[in-house]
């Protein structure tokens, strides 16, 4: 191949990249420059991405900090902010996993209280209506209680108490809903059991007076059901009597 042919080939290759692959080249350049930035600069960029709600970009940027500078102070921050990005993106399962990973790796860090609080919020935001399964509500309660037990003086206790109150109200409403279902379907003993459990477990519930009235009503209905009825019953009792 002549020198002229080689030059022409190189020029053609440059033109191809210029017209059809310029964005790819730019992406390579941007990616390379981003990787080569110091950890504090990358961390600031990740925080800016979070503030702008560019959560995928934030996760990527903080991921670079963790991978490229694993022993830096910014790597610790990056682990926490990746979890936050998932949280704000409403990817709650991923967020819980990331917060728990931070807990596991840094059990004595002061940010652990924040992680537990956020875990509780992740479950709280996934809870269902009172007529559905309450697993996420119960998980939220467990996390907020864990926060109170492990960090009783934490700045997040007041907020945790607020969510605990709302979660308990949801569970009480669920118990009342189930008890009412049993009552409507004439399963009176099952209804009594649920009303009694409601009053015992949630004494602060505003509908407990109504539940107490329902218990009395169910007991009366059960008693009436057990009473002998009609002439045949009376005759039977006469023949059964011991003279």
Description of the molecule:
With 243 residues, the chain is mostly helical. The protein has a domain at 35-90. It contains 12 helices and no strands.
Strand content: under 5%
Quaternary assembly: single chain
Overall residue-averaged pLDDT value: 86
Radius of gyration: 33 Å
SS-based structural class? mainly alpha
What are the low-pLDDT stretches, counting only 5+ consecutive residues below 50? Answer: 10-35, 231-243
Q: H/E order of the elements?
A: HHHHHHHHHHHH
Question: Helix proportion of residues, in percent?
Answer: over 70%
Characteristic terms for this protein:
243 residues; mainly alpha; 12 helices; disordered C terminus
Topology at a glance:
Blueprint: H1 3-20, H2 22-35, H3 39-51, H4 55-68, H5 73-88, H6 92-105, H7 112-124, H8 135-150, H9 157-184, H10 188-201, H11 208-226, H12 230-240
Helix pairs in contact: 3-4, 3-5, 4-5, 5-6, 6-7, 7-8, 8-9, 9-10, 10-11
């Amino acid at each position: 191949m002549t020198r002229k042919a080689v030059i022409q080939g190189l020029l053609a290759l440059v033109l191809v990249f210029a017209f059809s692959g310029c964005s790819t080249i730019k992406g390579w350049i941007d990616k390379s420059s981003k990787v080569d930035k110091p950890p504090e600069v990358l961390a600031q960029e990740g925080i800016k991405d979070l503030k702008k709600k560019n959560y995928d970009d934030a996760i990527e940027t903080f991921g670079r900090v963790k991978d490229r500078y694993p022993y830096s102070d910014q790597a610790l921050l990056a682990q926490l902010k990746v979890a936050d990005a998932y949280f704000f993106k409403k990817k709650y399962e991923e967020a819980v996993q990331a917060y728990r990973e931070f807990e596991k790796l840094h059990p004595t860090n002061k940010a652990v209280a924040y992680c537990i609080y956020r875990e509780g919020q992740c479950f709280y935001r996934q809870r269902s209506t009172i007529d559905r399964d309450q697993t996420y509500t119960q998980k939220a309660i467990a996390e907020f209680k864990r926060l109170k037990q492990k960090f009783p003086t934490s700045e997040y206790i007041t907020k945790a108490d607020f969510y605990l109150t709302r979660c308990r109200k949801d569970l009480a409403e669920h118990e009342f809903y189930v008890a009412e279902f049993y009552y409507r379907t004439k399963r009176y003993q099952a209804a009594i059991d649920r009303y009694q459990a409601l009053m015992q477990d949630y004494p602060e519930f505003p509908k407990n007076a109504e539940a107490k009235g329902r218990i009395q009503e169910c007991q009366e209905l059960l008693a009436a059901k057990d009473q002998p009825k009609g002439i045949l019953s009376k005759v039977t009792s006469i023949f059964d009597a011991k003279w």
